[in-house]
Amino acid sequence: MSTLLETENLSIAFGGITAVDQVSLAVAPGQIHSIIGPNGAGKTTLFNLISGLYQPSSGRVKLAGEEVTGLPPEQLARRGLSRSFQNLQIFFRMSAVENVMVGCHRHERTGILSHLLALPNVRAENRNSREIAMAQLARVGLADLAEKEAGSLSYGALKRLEIARALATEPRILLLDEPAAGCNPVETEEIDRVIHDVAKAGIAILLVEHDMRLVMRISDEITVLERGRKLVSGKPEAVREDPRVIAAYLGTFGSEEANRA
Ligand SMILES: Nc1ncnc2c1ncn2[C@@H]1O[C@H](COP(=O)(O)OP(=O)(O)O)[C@@H](O)[C@H]1O
Ligand SMILES: [Mg+2]
User: Fold this and answer.
1) Considering Cα of 13, then 19, then 22, then 25, what sign does the dihedral take?
2) N or C: which end of the chain has fewer CB within 10 A?
3) Where a domain ends, among 152, 169, 186?
């Protein structure tokens, strides 16, 4: 198995609390690797470390074999890492396609000055961004709604719009933080399909998600975090039957309780 993303003993402390404690994991191209664990376990903090928002206290992040620990998000995007956020980051007054174009950043080669002067190559790049954005909208099933104001879209569509924007940098690895949070079963099904399709195209997926049915169905590998530490890691069948995991979740796997957790 070739590894695309790797963390080695990644840690960060806030005051006295070690939010992420010596976490090592690996994700291969086309693989769906999920991070689960109770609220406050450190899942989002782990994403923030990997995506360059936080500097780790210790440990390393490697992307395609190169160390990228602590590089800023734009540089990571250029190297093929992209993420979505737990809370919607949508510009509601802009159209769906414009929201995705915001993510096309990485492809823009012209500088701010030429934008100010509105040189012809800027107009060409805007066209190019629009084409890329349209392709990603089609990928998440939103091509027909491209020109609609984002504020008029359903919640499930907005969650997919966020994924489309993260895809606009054409990443090799996509980090998704609770992409199905707040979605009804039909919307969750659509997110499931999108994630599957993206993985099938060879993009690695690191997923944080509370919907256990989705996680168990979709993941190639699951890492369970508890109080910042890796509790267990393995295939879904093994993880769901692991006594330590059952204890951490009080045996509520697959129940409504666990799905809401
Ligand atoms: N910027 C921060 N400053 C202080 N504490 C933080 C910060 N970010 C996260 N934490 C703490 O780290 C722990 C893990 O939080 P988080 O990663 O959001 O958990 P999860 O996403 O698994 O619910 C929590 O105790 C949280 O309060
Ligand atoms: Mg979180």
Assistant:
1) negative
2) N
3) 169
Pocket-forming residues, ligand 1, beta carbon under 6 Å: 14, 17, 19, 37, 39-45
Q: Is this structure's pTM higher than 0.85? A: yes
Ligand 1, atom 2, residue with closest C-alpha: 14
Same domain as 66, residue 54: yes
Give the residue whose CA is nearest to atom 6 of ligand 1. 14
Name the residue range of residue 155's domain.
91-169
Give, using CA atoms, the residue closest to atom 25 of ligand 1.
40
**In angstroms, what is the span from residue 170 Cα to ligand 2's centroid?**
24
**What does the pLDDT average to over 69-77?**
91
Q: Residue 84 — very low, low, confident or very high, per pLDDT cuts 50/70/90?
A: confident
Question: Tokens for 30?
Answer: 């086309």
Domain boundary among 169, 200, 215: 169
Burial class (CB in 10 A: 0-12, 13-18, 19+), 127: exposed
* Residue to mutate (ligand 1; options 11, 14, 54; most atoms within 8 A of CB): 14
199 and 131, same structural domain? Answer: no
Instruction: Please give the backbone phi and psi of residue 31, each rounded to the nearest 5 degrees, phi first.
Output: -90, 145
- Find out whether 245 and 257 touch, Cβ atoms under 8 Å: no
Q: What is the pLDDT of residues 146-160, one digit of tens each?
A: 999 999 999 999 999
